[in-house]
Amino acid sequence: MRKVLILGAGSFALEAADVAKDLGWQVAGYVVDVKAPKTLRGKPVHDANGELPSLPCVCGIVSPERIGLVRNLAGRGFKFLTSIHPDASVSFASLWGLEGTGSLVNRGAVVSRDSFFGCCVVVNRNASVGHDCTLGECCTVGPGANLAGGVIVGEGAVVGMGANVREGVQIGTGAVVGMGAVVLQDVPDGETWWGVPARKANHD
């Protein structure tokens, strides 16, 4: 049986562990770079800066702050294992873009052909990724969100639950698309957009 480490020790890490178990893998423990309990579901929670078992890692964090943890482990030579839930649908032509990235494609998600994934992307429950999309390192596509064809989602960006993104649109690095938003134009780096149609959020 394949043994894996789950990145994170929160609620989504438990969800990622459930995906791993549905794939027939054994969760050997969890890895964090923040303060956390020493065990989770009876498994050890390891400090990322300490001594770790030499096992492949699976993403179990939805926060874009996981970038630091991912890069730390990659720099130390740890490998990342992609987890695709048995109830997800991934085009064979996109598997090359997923293999070995440590990404997680959750239950009910759909990934169409010729999409490319960076390291530790999360495509959450019932989300849809259209053809020829590019998902940058540690970005998140929330539950029920829909990306049309040719969408680019930048590193560390978040597309919120139930959002819809028009074909060919680019979501910038570190940008946030609010839940239920309808995105018809490019979202610049670091900005938060919401609404129908989506516009830059006014934080005043």
Question: What are the salient characteristics of this protein?
Answer:
globular; 3 helices; UDP N-Acetylglucosamine Acyltransferase, domain 1; alpha/beta; 23 strands; 204 residues; six-stranded parallel sheet; Rossmann fold; 2 domains; single chain; eight-stranded mixed sheet
Q: Widest sheet: strand order?
A: 6-8-11-14-17-20-22-23
pLDDT < 50 stretches? none
> What's the total number of strands?
23
Order of secondary-structure elements: EHEEEEHEEHEEEEEEEEEEEEEEEE
The average pLDDT value, as a whole number, equals 94
What does this molecule look like?
The protein has three helices and 23 strands. The longest helix has 12 residues, at 11-22. Strand 22 and strand 23 (199-200) form a beta hairpin. Helices cover 13% and strands 29% of the residues. The termini are far apart. The protein has an eight-stranded mixed beta sheet with strand order 6-8-11-14-17-20-22-23, covered by helices on one side. It is of the alpha/beta class. It has two domains: 3-75, Rossmann fold; 84-190, 3 Solenoid (UDP N-Acetylglucosamine Acyltransferase, domain 1). It has helices at residues 11-22, 66-75, 95-98; strands spanning 3-7, 26-32, 39-40, 43-47, 57-59, 83-84, 89-90, 104-105, 110-111, 116-117, 122-123, 128-129, 134-135, 140-141, 146-147, 152-153, 158-159, 164-165, 170-171, 176-177, 182-183, 192-194, 199-200.
Concise structural overview:
With 204 residues, the protein is of the alpha/beta class.
